[in-house]
Amino acid sequence: MSVALTTQSGPLAPASVCVYCAASPGNIPAHRAAAVSVGTALARAGRTLIYGGSSKGLMGIVSSSCLKAGGDVTGIIPYAMAATGDTPKFWLDVYAVNCDIFTYRFVSRGL
């Protein structure tokens, strides 16, 4: 089943969705399965994923699942983290920001 989002003035442009979750995989398999489901669902819905930029943990699972399903991914990562090499090599768009963690969270949600 396919759902088309429309308004009175025509089709609704696909929205971006910001996902902020753990940079560790955790101990609960259901959380990892949910991360795969979220990434896949965003791609199938035509939504762009904006996320915290890590290649590890639940964030990495969501982003790689979205890309595997044909979705678009934008990563937002502080320069200090990017310098550690903790960045996936498969992003379509990457923004490295020079800020503290509180500003980083604000920028990630506001893109």
Q: What does this entry look like structurally?
A:
With 111 residues, this protein is an alpha/beta fold. The protein has a single domain, classed as Rossmann fold, CATH 3.40.50. It is built from 4 helices and 6 strands, in the order βββαβαβαβα. The protein has helices at 29-44, 57-68, 79-82, 101-110; strands at 6-7, 10-11, 16-19, 48-51, 73-78, 93-97. Helix 1 (29-44) runs parallel beside helix 2 (57-68). The longest helix is centred in the first third of the chain and has 16 residues, at 29-44. Residues 1-6 have low confidence and may be disordered. GO terms for molecular function: hydrolase activity, hydrolyzing N-glycosyl compounds.
Helix content: 25-40%
Name the beta content range: 15-25%
Order of helices and strands: EEEHEHEHEH
The first-to-last residue Cα distance is 30 Å
CATH architecture: 3-Layer(aba) Sandwich
Shape: globular
Radius of gyration, rounded? 15 Å
Tell me how many strands there are: 6
Mean pLDDT reading: 75
Uncertain residue ranges:
1-6
Major β-sheet profile: 4 strands, parallel
* CATH topology-level name: Rossmann fold
CATH class: Alpha Beta
Strand order of the largest sheet: 3-4-5-6
Q: Into how many domains do the coordinates divide?
A: 1
List keywords for this structure.
Rossmann fold; 21% strand; two-stranded antiparallel ribbon; alpha/beta; 111 residues
Topology summary:
Layout: E1 6-7, E2 10-11, E3 16-19, H1 29-44, E4 48-51, H2 57-68, E5 73-78, H3 79-82, E6 93-97, H4 101-110
Parallel strand pairs: 3-4, 4-5, 5-6
Antiparallel strand pairs: 1-2
